[in-house]
Amino acid sequence: MTPDLDRSTIETAYARWAPIYDVICGPVMLKGRRAAAAEARAIGGKVLEVGVGTGLSFDDYDASTEVTGIDLSAPMLEKARAKMDSGRYPWVKQVLQMDAHRMSFADASFDCVVAQFVITLVENPELVLSECHRVVKPGGRIILVNHLYSEVGVAAAVERWTAQRTRNLGLRPEFPFARLQAWAQSTKEAVLIERRKLRPFGLYTLVCFEKTPTPLAA
């Protein structure tokens, strides 16, 4: 298993990706993006998108949501702000350059947090999840979509081989679901409520956690 990606690798990789990201990654990630945004729309209200990138997902939200996006990459955010300037996305309120490991938002600021193709690519996935958990309201959800490690068979072998060769591209294909599950089990008021392979090929997995409300004192 390769180590977690460091911040420098990610920033360098996504500065390079920014000019071509929409063309290359837009079609590939379409099903996953739409599935995550559909879950967020079902909740509605204030949505935080972690790793908003170039704003590819803006089309997937609507007026039932008020979207704030954060990302480390300034070149990616330039693309997102250009989309906002078009006036087509009034539900996108702001995009900010921010480290998801140390968010500046107050506790319980959002009705849900969405992280699409992000959690496998950060320095400390568990810390990012804990920050997402902190800023979501009780009863709110953390919605992830990602490719997760196949763990066994030929697919797992290919993912391990690929991981060694795509690290500098900001990719990591062999991140296991077990880490997400272990985080939830060790985190108070975090409950795994959904784990679903997405059609048509099951390449991506949708994972949802709910922040359970604190019981009222008797």
Automatic annotation (TrEMBL):
Record has Methyltransferase as a keyword: yes
UniProt xrefs under SUPFAM superfamilies: S-adenosyl-L-methionine-dependent methyltransferases
Keywords for the protein's UniProt record, in alphabetical order: Methyltransferase, Transferase
InterPro entries: Methyltransf_11, Methyltransf_Superfamily, SAM-dependent_MTases_sf
Keyword Nucleotide-binding attached: no
One GO BP annotation of this record: methylation
Residues annotated as domain Methyltransferase type: 48-144
MF (Gene Ontology): S-adenosylmethionine-dependent methyltransferase activity
Protein name: Methyltransferase family protein
Organism of derivation: Rhodopseudomonas faecalis
